[in-house]
Specification:
By secondary structure, the protein is mostly helical. The chain starts with a helix and ends with a helix.
Length: 122
């Protein structure tokens, strides 16, 4: 809301484009941080509920996946979120990060392999 009430004065289109890019990146980063915090709260609550109920049943697959994704670093979680949650293509992710799509593809392959390994060996 602060942004809408007091926009900056941009003399050229280049300044406006740069300002819009920075604003979009900051907004996206803030959304990712909020999502990560929400996931951490949910994971904490889910694990405390599971402990309270006892270990008679195996945890649901979504709890296992959530716990496994918490072991990843922020960049890896963001990469998974961009690819699978938002559905961006490898090229779009690579362009937004500033690298080659093959690098994104190999990073995703490594992360997914680690998640599969963790799910197979809890």
């Amino acid at each position: 809301m602060k942004l809408a009430s007091n926009p900056p004065r941009c003399e050229t289109n280049a300044q406006l484009a740069a300002w819009l890019q920075v604003t979009a990146l900051n907004t996206a980063r803030n959304m990712f941080v909020a999502e990560r915090r929400r996931n951490q709260r949910e994971t904490s609550y889910a694990t405390s509920q599971y402990r309270r109920e006892g270990a008679h049943e195996a945890p649901p697959a979504d709890e296992i996946l959530r716990a496994l994704t918490q072991t990843l670093d922020d960049a890896e979680r963001d990469l998974l979120r961009l690819r699978y949650a938002t559905g961006l293509s490898l090229g779009a992710i690579a362009h937004s990060i500033g690298c080659h799509p093959s690098r994104i593809e190999s990073a995703l392959r490594r992360v997914v392999a680690r998640l599969r390994e963790g799910a197979a060996n809890p």
